[in-house]
Design brief:
Length: 316
């Protein structure tokens, strides 16, 4: 089945049913989300229902409590690509408005899940809340499901290394520079995407040439040097790399954070215009060196560590 994205209830109403549905923001589409998505797909195949997601755009907190709105790990387009890769056939990205926020749990189930989306089964995490002021919980959802003719399954949270997989925990890990553990909770490396922009030209003259990334991503790793993987989004090319997130203190510092990447393999072709940068491991903090020559020596040491990392990765 081709993947479909609906952006309004009216657009979805005619084609969405019969659905097996999960509901949430799914920022990051991490290992806990994937457990729910896997069950949605399995139940859909068993019963002939369409594996579906109801998500919200913008994030509900931006409407009900904008000061507390989280920085997001993924855009809607990125989430949809991950949904499709997990076997989801259709997504309603419901515009979240003050009117939607005022719906009681009973109104939400009746008008949206039942009449509009034709839910035959609804799967959610054990901390799921819904309706005005989050008045509904999983017990109330189960009661309303029985009233409206669909069954509810609660999927328990997933923990790895003593940490519950959650979007907020992954944001915290990335902000702390622990991209390795974030990768485990995401089941993929955390990545930034954006355009390659001109730098100051200092690197190519005094240290090593780099690609400079300009990104609109809301969540950035802690300042420091990372082992990364760089992909050209306009072709199939990719390279092992090391990247610095910081303010270039050796050269006097910048007011704006920069993300500079040094490729560990030949470019072999035109400089990419748009790249994806995957963060694999943090190897050190950013610091000021006495001279560009001292920085270059450190970069070469960082390169050696990264090459060892990739050799071990290949061996595995």
């Amino acid at each position: 089945m081709p993947f479909r994205l609906y952006r309004s209830l009216d657009e979805a109403r005619a084609n969405f049913p019969p659905s097996v549905l999960t509901i949430g923001n799914f920022d990051g589409v991490h290992v806990g989300h994937r457990a729910i998505l896997g069950r949605v797909v399995a139940i859909g195949r068993e019963h002939g229902w369409k594996p579906s997601v109801l998500t919200f755009d913008p994030h509900p907190t931006k409407i009900v409590a904008p000061a507390r709105a989280p920085r997001l790990l993924t855009t809607l387009e990125q989430r949809c690509a991950l949904f499709a890769g997990a076997g989801i056939e259709q997504v309603l990205a419901l515009p979240f408005t003050a009117e939607i926020a005022r719906l009681t749990p009973e109104e939400f189930v009746s008008s949206i899940l039942d009449r509009a989306l034709g839910a035959c089964a609804v799967l959610v995490g054990d901390n799921f809340r819904f309706g005005h002021r989050q008045a509904g919980d999983t017990a109330r959802l189960s009661e309303l499901g029985r009233e409206h003719g669909f069954f509810v399954e609660i999927v328990p949270a997933i923990s790895l290394r003593g940490r519950i997989a959650s979007s907020s925990e992954i944001r915290r890990l990335i902000g702390d520079g622990n991209v390795s553990l974030a990768c485990r909770l995401l089941q993929r490396p955390y990545a930034l995407e954006g355009d390659v922009v001109p730098g100051h030209g200092v690197g190519s003259r005094q240290t090593v040439p780099t690609l400079n990334l300009k990104t609109q991503a809301e969540v950035l790793p802690l300042r420091g040097v990372y082992i990364t993987r760089t992909a050209d989004l306009d072709s199939q090319r990719q390279w092992p790399s090391i990247s610095n997130v910081g303010y270039r203190p050796t050269f006097g510092g910048d007011d704006e954070l920069s993300i500079e990447t040094f490729l560990l393999a030949p470019l072999e072709g035109p400089t990419p215009g748009c790249i994806k940068l995957e963060f694999l491991r943090r190897i050190r903090e950013e610091r000021k060196f006495e001279s560009p020559e001292a920085l270059k020596i450190q970069i070469l040491h960082d390169v050696a560590r990264a090459q060892t990392y990739f050799r071990r990765l290949e061996a595995l």
